Amino acid sequence: MVNQLISKIKSTGAPIVVGLDPMMKFIPEHIQKKAFEEYGETLEGAAEAVWQFNKEIVDHIYDIIPAVKPQIAMYEQFGIPGLAVFKRTVDYCKEKNLVVIGDVKRGDIGSTSEAYAVGHLGKVKIGSTICRGLDEDFITVNPYLGSDGVKPFIKVCQEEKKGLFVLVKTSNPSSGEFQDRPVSDAGGRPLYEVVGEQVAKWAQEHMGESYSYIGAVVGATYPEMGKVLRGIMPKSYILVPGYGAQGGKGKDLVHFFNEDGLGAIVNSSRGIIAAWQQEKYVSFKEEGFGEASRAAVEEMRQDISDALNSR
Predict the structure, then answer these.
(1) Is 268 helix (H, G, I), strand (E, B) or coil?
(2) Distance CA 53, CA 92 (A)
(3) Residues 304, 15: contact at Cβ < 8 Å?
(4) In 3-state terms, what secondary structure has residue 33?
(5) Active-site amino acid positions
(6) CATH fold of 2-309, please?
(7) Nearest-angstrom CA–CA distance, 197 and 184
(8) How many CB atoms lie within 10 A of CB 283?
(9) In this predicted model, what pLDDT tens digit does every residue of 107-165 receive, in sequence order?
(10) Which value, in Å, is the radius of gyration of the alpha carbons in the chain?
(11) Structural domain boundaries of the chain?
(12) Are 237 and 213 in contact (CB under 8 A)?
C-alpha cells in the first residue's frame, strides 16, 4: 500500500492527506437541517449529517489528493450510527481510489492488540466465512507499550500489504512532557529519538519498493525535531499533522522530506473541511463548502510545492 500511496502523491503532485474530522460546528446548517428533518435531532440524525458532509467534500477533492485520514473519535461520539458512517466513509473513499489512513491511535498488547489489528487492517474468520472489518489501508498506533503493542499490527500489515504510522513526536503543545524527556541509557537523548530509532528498525522488517510500510507521526509544529527524525528514519514515510490551523506552514515542512521530494505526507483537517468558515473563502458561501475545500487543498499544495522548490 505504501507503493500505491507514493504513486498517488506523484500523480497528484500533492503530498497531502485531508483529515476527515467532522464536528457539528463545521457542518453547514442546510446539511444539518435536512438530516434532522429525516432522522430527528438524534445520533442517527447527526451521523447522517456527517455522512452528507463527508461525501460532498470527498466528491470535490478526490481527484487532487492521494489520501484521507478519518479520525475515529469524531465518529464514535455519535455511537453506533457514527461508527457506521466511519465505515461508510472508508468504503466510499476507497471507491474513489483514495488511500485511507485510519486515525485510531491504537495501543495495547497480546490478543487485544491482535484484535485491533485484525479489526482495522485485516480479516477475521467467522465460521467458514472470511470477513473484513473497518478495512483501512493504514492506521496510526501508539508505541508506548513497547514492541508487544506494535508487532501484532506489523504482522497483519505484512499479511495484508498495509501500513502503520507510529506516534513519535506529536504536534500538541504538551507532547514534550514525556516525548522530550532525556533517556539516560541513550546518552541523554530525548525519548522521541529513541522511539524513532525503534521505528526505523521496524521499518526494515516491512519494506515496500523504496519506502517502508511502517511510517511515523511527527508534528509540523516541531520542524527542527523533524529534521533530526528524518535522518533517523530515512525509509519511513512521515505523517505530518499540525499544518494550517495548528500553525504549520510549507516553509516549516521541508526538513520532513528527503532529497527525492518524497518521504512525507502532510495532514490538514479543519483547514480543509471547514475552509468555508474562513474569511479568505467567504465568497463560496455555506452552500459552496465543497468548492471551498477544494480551493484550500489547491492553496496548500502550492504552499508546499513552493517551499520544496526553494530549499
Answers:
(1) strand
(2) 13
(3) yes
(4) helix
(5) 105
(6) TIM Barrel (3.20.20)
(7) 15
(8) 11
(9) 999 999 999 999 999 999 999 999 999 999 999 999 989 999 999 999 999 999 999 99
(10) 19
(11) 2-309
(12) no
